[in-house]
């Protein structure tokens, strides 16, 4: 099969790889028809992780079931399925509670399992023609008839739409809330969209990319361009000096004064400054430090200094972590099915798999207009 393979920092290549196949009776084999590039892929692409060369990337996958293992009951050959980026077993203590992002079976002793990820198990990614889905009955979201027509909407259920929603759940966004979101990448834009779905009164999105901020405005958010600073003051002004009720971190890694030079615009500090006292902060951005010289990247992962003193004084609350996609993807898919939401507004490029290396480069450079790429294997 053709697949996108990681070869080292900023080197990916599309090449022939052995076909994915059923390995266990609970597996499902999917012919991938849509697979997105994600900001999370960039942690691997840029060489910030322990990702080994030769592995297939891709965790935002949708396709058609072409084979099922002997123990699969619910999912049928021919079903169109969207796959949560997290892989869960469905029966461990965490999956039982709906915390499928922290499955204890699929990546024991670690923080959950995912396709095509460093440190999240050995699973191959789906930026390929075929994908093996473990525990298929649990992990496949079977899509309604006619899903092909809205494929670019449904594929957002693999990650960024539920992840954006998760940010608002961690922050407990409620009707009438004023919400500030740091990051107008795909995840931040989906957090803004989710805030609207949850009835927020005011949604403010902070970034420096004009084209991404324009998308935030298009869905009714207030865009705050922080290129020349002033973002904090603008949020305070828009909230009558009180600060936002809730805030979401949708940027992730930024090096900080613990590693290198001071970063004046650390999103965590900006959140502490712009969320009101006792307000809630949801952090879905992944904190992997960009430190090519770190002798032990894993040990240093995510260590950062932020203003804990101010956070404590303001009595703020915080929620963090990978999105438990299965907790959200079914109700969000119903909203897509009934035309209540259309997350495909985020898609900027639909490209054949063969063009993935170029797409990675442009998305990594945050080139103007490259917001979200959907790859179409087999086209
Ligand atoms: P992205 O890199 O495309 O977008 C990040 C955006 O943040 C960019 O537009 C960038 O300009 C902006 N930014 C950078 N520094 C900023 C600052 N100081 N203030 C405001 N904006 C700033 O990535 P994405 O796909 O939107 O993903 C965002 C983060 O979410 C990544 O860290 C990704 O790994 C993470 N993520 C988490 C989960 C989860 O389950 N928790 C799932 C998917 C992605
Ligand atoms: Zn993703």
Summarize the structure in words.
Keywords: Metal-binding, NAD, Zinc. GO terms for molecular function: metal ion binding. It is a single chain. The protein is built from 13 helices and 17 strands. With 379 residues, it is an alpha/beta fold. It has two domains: 2-158 and 324-376, Medium-chain alcohol dehydrogenases, catalytic domain (Quinone Oxidoreductase, Chain A, domain 1, Alpha-Beta Complex), CATH 3.90.180.10; 161-320, NAD(P)-binding Rossmann-like Domain (Rossmann fold). The strands form four sheets. Strands 3, 4, 5, 8, 9, 16 and 17 form a seven-stranded mixed β-sheet that branches. A six-stranded parallel β-sheet has the order 12-11-10-13-14-15, with helices on both faces. It has a two-stranded antiparallel ribbon with strand order 1-2. The structure holds nicotinamide-adenine-dinucleotide (NAD) and zinc ion (ZN). Residues 38, 40, 59-60, 85, 159 line the site of zinc ion.
């Amino acid at each position: 099969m053709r697949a996108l393979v990681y070869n080292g920092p900023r080197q990916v290549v599309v090449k022939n790889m052995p076909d994915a196949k059923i390995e266990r009776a609970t597996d499902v084999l999917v012919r991938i028809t849509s697979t997105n590039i994600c900001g999370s892929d960039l942690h691997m692409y840029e060489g910030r992780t322990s990702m080994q060369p030769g592995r297939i990337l891709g965790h935002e996958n949708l396709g058609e079931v072409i084979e099922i293992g002997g123990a699969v009951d619910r999912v049928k050959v021919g079903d169109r399925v969207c796959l949560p980026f997290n892989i869960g077993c469905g029966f461990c203590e965490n999956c039982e509670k709906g915390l499928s992002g922290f499955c204890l079976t699929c990546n024991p002793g670690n923080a959950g399992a995912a396709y095509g990820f460093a440190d999240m198990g050995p699973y191959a990614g789906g930026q390929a023609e075929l994908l093996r889905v473990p525990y298929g009955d649990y992990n496949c979201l079977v899509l309604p008839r006619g899903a092909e027509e809205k494929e670019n909407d449904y594929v957002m259920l693999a990650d960024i739409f539920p992840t954006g929603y998760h940010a608002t759940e961690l922050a407990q966004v409620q009707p009438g809330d004023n919400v500030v979101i740091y990051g107008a990448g795909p995840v931040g834009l989906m957090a803004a969209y989710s805030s609207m779905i949850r009835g927020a009164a005011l949604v403010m999105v902070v970034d420096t990319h004009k084209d991404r901020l324009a998308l935030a405005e298009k869905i009714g958010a207030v865009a705050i361009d922080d290129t020349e600073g002033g973002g904090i003051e603008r949020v305070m002004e828009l909230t009558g000096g009180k600060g936002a009720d809730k805030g979401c971190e949708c940027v992730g890694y930024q090096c900080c004064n613990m590693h290198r030079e001071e970063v004046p615009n650390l999103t965590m500090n900006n959140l502490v400054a712009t969320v009101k006292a006792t307000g809630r902060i949801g952090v879905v951005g992944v904190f992997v430090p960009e430190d090519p010289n770190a002798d032990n990247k894993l040990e240093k992962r995510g260590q950062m200094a932020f203003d804990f003193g101010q956070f404590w004084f303001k009595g703020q609350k915080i929620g963090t972590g990978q999105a438990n996609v299965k907790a959200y993807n079914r109700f969000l898919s119903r909203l897509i099915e009934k035309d209540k939401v259309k997350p495909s507004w985020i898609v900027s490029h639909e490209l054949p798999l063969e063009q993935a290396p170029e797409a990675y480069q442009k998305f990594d450079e945050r080139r103007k207009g490259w917001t979200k790429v959907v790859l179409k294997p087999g086209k």
